[in-house]
Amino acid sequence: MEEQSMQEMGRRDRKKAATRGSLLRAATQMFAERGYQETTVKDIAAAAGVTERTFFRYFPSKEDLVFAEILDFIPLLVKEIAGRPASEPPYTAVLNGLLAAAEGLDGGLGILFVGAPPRALSTGARRTSVLAGFEDGIAEALADRLAHRSPDEPARTPALHISVLARASVAAVRSALIDFTTRDNAPTGPPPSVEDFTHLLHEAFAVLSSGGV
Fold first, then answer.
1. Which residue segment(s) compose the domain that 11 sits in?
2. Angstrom distance (rounded) from CA 24 to CA 35
């Protein structure tokens, strides 16, 4: 009986994970096609083949779905940054780690960056907490990289130095996002693409690497 109960729990957990993944994939596609603000919870639920009630069992709101995707992404990002070649400068490692980790997501950069413009999300405690988690994840990865590069002299890279690198990196990502979504409102020309956003990311990190010159 105990073994059967564990098997049932395993099936339930897999079903929950599958439903959650379906909702995230549906949201990714719909945000890309319609835009974040034009996509409703009802739209996402219907595209995922579930009811709105089921959606709210997994995410309190559309915004929380985006935040959940970011939080899921942080461990992937930490792993990729920490594993970048030791020869890469910190900002290069963050950028390359970011792009490599995004490749593992459904739809690539999709929902994580292009889907929901930062100005469309609230400015409350939830957003602040998620943003801090993103910054702390990058700081953790950079600390790991730098510690392994100079194991005999850990004091060379104080916590403040790492914190500045991490938060400046997030600022570069946010700046690229804001520029990208501003271009999206342009009255003429083709709609911006994920490739356009990737180019903006490279530009933003180049500014950091050059010291703003």
1. 1-59
2. 15
Q: How far apart are CA 47 and CA 166, in angstroms?
A: 36
Q: Render each residue's pLDDT in the chain as its tens digit; 213 residues.
A: 555 555 666 788 889 989 998 998 888 888 877 777 888 999 999 999 999 999 999 999 888 888 888 888 889 899 999 899 988 999 999 999 998 888 766 545 555 555 555 555 665 677 778 888 889 999 999 988 887 765 555 445 688 999 999 999 989 988 887 787 776 555 555 555 667 888 989 999 999 999 766
Identify whether residues 16 and 112 lie together within a single domain.
no
CA dihedral 146, 147, 150, 153 (to 10 degrees): 120
Residues 12 and 87 in one domain: no
Task: Give 8-60 as a DSSP string.
Answer: HHHHHHHHHHHHHHHHHHHHHHHHHHH-TTT--HHHHHHHHTS-HHHHHHH-S
Q: Scanning the structure block, which residue is given the tokens 């929380």?
A: 64
